[in-house]
Design goal:
The chain is of the alpha/beta class and about 280 residues long. The chain has two domains: about 180 residues, P-loop containing nucleotide triphosphate hydrolases (Rossmann fold, 3-Layer(aba) Sandwich); about 35 residues, no CATH class. It is built from eleven helices and ten strands. The strands form two sheets. The protein has a six-stranded mixed sheet, sandwiched between helices. It has a four-stranded antiparallel sheet with strand order 2-1-4-5, with helices on one face. The longest helix is centred in the middle third of the chain and has 16 residues. The chain is globular. Bound molecules: adenosine-5'-diphosphate and magnesium ion.
Length: about 280
C-alpha cells in the first residue's frame, strides 16, 4: 500500500469564542495514510480540540477565531460540508454514551448510513458485515442500557466503521475499558490499519497500551506540537520529554540505564523491546 499525506495542518491556530487565549497555536503537521498516529500530552493541552479541527466540529459546531488551514484527504475543512467530511472521517468520542442513542444496536449502526442516503439493501449488508467484524452480532437487538462499557464502545465504533471512512479518529477510546478489553480493542484497531488500510489517529493516555502499534507519536504541550516522530525517536534518551507525559515504565528504565552508559540498539518503547534488548 502506498503511503501518502492524508491530513495537513498549515499554520493552524484556534481560540474558542468564550476564551481569551489561543488553545492551539501555529500547528504544522502532516499525517500519512495507512499509519497509526498516537496523539499525547497532558490534560488540557488541546488534543480533543485538534481532533475537532480534523472532523470539522471546529469551526462548524464550536465557534471561535480560526487561522490557517486544515486539509483532510484533499478537502479544506473550513469550507467543507459536514457530509463530505463524514464520508472520509469517522470519529469515536471519548464517552460512547454520547454516541449511541437509538433503541437498539442495529438501529444505531443504521443511523449514520441512513444519513449518508444509502439504499436499504446496502445498509443491511453493511450492518451485518460490521457486526460480524466487531463480534457484536448477538447484540443486534439489545438496547444501549443493556450493554457493558466494552460493548458500548464496540457499538459506537461499529456505527462509525459501517460508513467506511478512510480515516478513523479515536478520542481516549479505552478510558472506560478494563485492561483486557482495552488490549483487545487495540488489537482490533491495529487490524483495521494493517489489514483494511485505514488511517488511525488515537488520543490515549495509556501509552504502554498503544505505543507498540504506533507508527507516529505526536506530543502536544500547551497548544503547541513539541514532538512529531516515531515513538523510538521521541523517547530517545538524548532528548528531553515533558514531565507530565505518562511514559511507559520500560521506557523510563531504558532512559535511566542508557544515561548510565548501558548500550541499547535502539530506544525502548515497550516491554517487548526491553526483553529483546536484555536478551541480546
Ligand atoms: N468548547 C470549549 N469552549 C471553551 N474552551 C474549551 C472548550 N473545549 C475545550 N476548551 C478548553 O481548551 C483547552 C484544551 O482542551 P482540550 O482540547 O479538551 O484538551 P485535552 O483533550 O488535551 O485535554 C482546555 O483549557 C479546555 O478548557
Ligand atoms: Mg480530551
Amino acid at each position: 500500500m502506498s503511503v501518502k499525506e492524508l491530513i495537513r495542518f498549515n499554520n493552524f491556530s484556534f481560540r474558542y469564542n468564550s476564551r481569551d487565549d489561543k488553545i492551539l497555536e501555529d500547528i504544522n503537521l502532516s499525517i500519512k495514510s495507512n499509519e497509526i498516529t498516537v496523539l499525547a500530552g497532558p490534560t488540557g493541552c488541546g488534543k480533543s480540540t485538534l481532533l475537532r479541527a480534523i472532523v470539522g466540529l471546529i469551526p462548524n459546531m464550536y465557534e471561535g477565531e480560526y487561522t490557517g488551514d486544515v486539509i483532510v484527504d484533499g478537502i479544506k475543512i473550513r469550507d467543507a460540508e459536514i457530509k463530505e467530511i463524514a464520508k472520509r472521517v469517522g470519529f469515536v468520542f471519548q464517552n460512547p454514551e454520547n454516541q449511541i442513542f437509538m433503541f437498539s444496536v442495529e438501529r444505531d449502526i443504521a443511523f449514520g448510513l441512513e444519513n449518508l442516503g444509502l439504499e436499504q439493501e446496502i445498509i443491511k449488508k453493511r450492518i451485518s458485515k460490521i457486526m460480524k467484524t466487531l463480534n457484536i452480532t448477538h447484540l443486534a437487538k439489545k438496547a444501549p442500557h443493556e450493554l457493558s462499557d466494552g460493548q458500548k464502545q464496540r457499538t459506537a465504533l461499529a456505527g462509525v466503521l459501517a460508513m467506511e471512512p478512510k480515516i478513523l479518529i479515536l478520542d481516549e477510546p479505552t478510558s472506560l475499558l478494563d485492561p483486557k478489553t482495552a488490549m483487545e480493542f487495540m488489537e482490533l484497531i491495529n487490524k483495521l490499519c494493517k489489514e483494511e488500510g485505514m488511517s488511525i489517529i488515537i488520543v490515549e493516555h495509556r501509552l504502554d497500551l498503544v505505543l507498540k502499534y504506533a507508527d507516529k507519536l505526536i506530543v502536544l504541550s500547551e497548544g503547541k506540537v513539541i514532538s512529531d516522530d516515531t515513538p523510538e525517536n521521541v523517547f530517545d534518551y538524548k532528548k528531553d520529554i515533558i514531565p507530565e507525559l505518562s511514559v511507559p515504565f520500560s521506557t523510563k528504565l531504558y532512559r535511566e540505564l542508557a544515561k548510565n552508559q548501558m548500550k541499547f540498539t535502539k530506544p525502548v518503547t515497550g516491554v517487548e523491546d526491553m526483553i529483546r534488548e536484555v536478551m541480546k
